[in-house]
Amino acid sequence: MYGKADMNTFPDFKFEDPKFEVLDKPQS
In which domain of life is the source organism classified (predicted)? Predict the structure, then answer.
């Protein structure tokens, strides 16, 4: 579900955290 880039950006974030889902969608 989450790419390695997301893990590197949010290493302290928990994958089960609902907020992570929002951060997983970057606005480029």
Answer: Eukaryota
- What pLDDT, on the 0 to 100 scale, is given for residue 26? 66
The Cα 17–Cα 28 span in angstroms is: 22
Tell me if 9 sits within 8 A of 28, measured CB to CB.
no
The radius of gyration of the chain from alpha carbons, rounded to an integer in Å, stands at: 8
**Token code pair at residue 6:** 């997301």
- DSSP character string of 1-28: ---HHHHHH-TTS-TT-HHHHHHTS---
